[in-house]
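re: ur question from yesterday

yeah so i grabbed the chain u mentioned. its 138 aa long if i counted rite. heres the sequnce exactly as i have it in my notes:
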Amino acid sequence: MKKTFFFAMLVTYCSPHIQAKQNTFNNFAIRPWGRFDILLDENYCKVKKITVLPGKRLSYQQHQFREEHWIIVQGDATVTIDGNTNSYGPGSMIHIPIKTKHRIGNNSQEPLIFIETQLGTYFGEDDIERFEDDYGRV
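ran it thru and got these structure tokens back, copy pasting raw so excuse formatting
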């Protein structure tokens, strides 16, 4: 109940900002595992649409300055948080606290798409401490 309320409030607050910037703000990055599109980038949060290609996964990593909230919108995710691995489907919500090791992967035959909301004091791509990586970036 508590998480559902948080996400409902977050979507309610961020949605007008996302729609207002949609036509003028087109920021994305291609990665070995897929891509991310930045939907909102403000001093209070960053929101990304992340697409993970079939059979790929992100680094096992943690962040010093931000927590993350993931909502799976398409596909089947394999998520590892501090060594515990679980599967999640569309509609699932996952909370990643600050300084928590985590990873998401796609073991299905279709793209995995999830929305990531970052909250904290810093949202730069250099706030990633990698512990394992399939692409040699540790």
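noticed a couple things. The mean pLDDT is 88. also The chain has one domain: 2-132.
anyway ttyl
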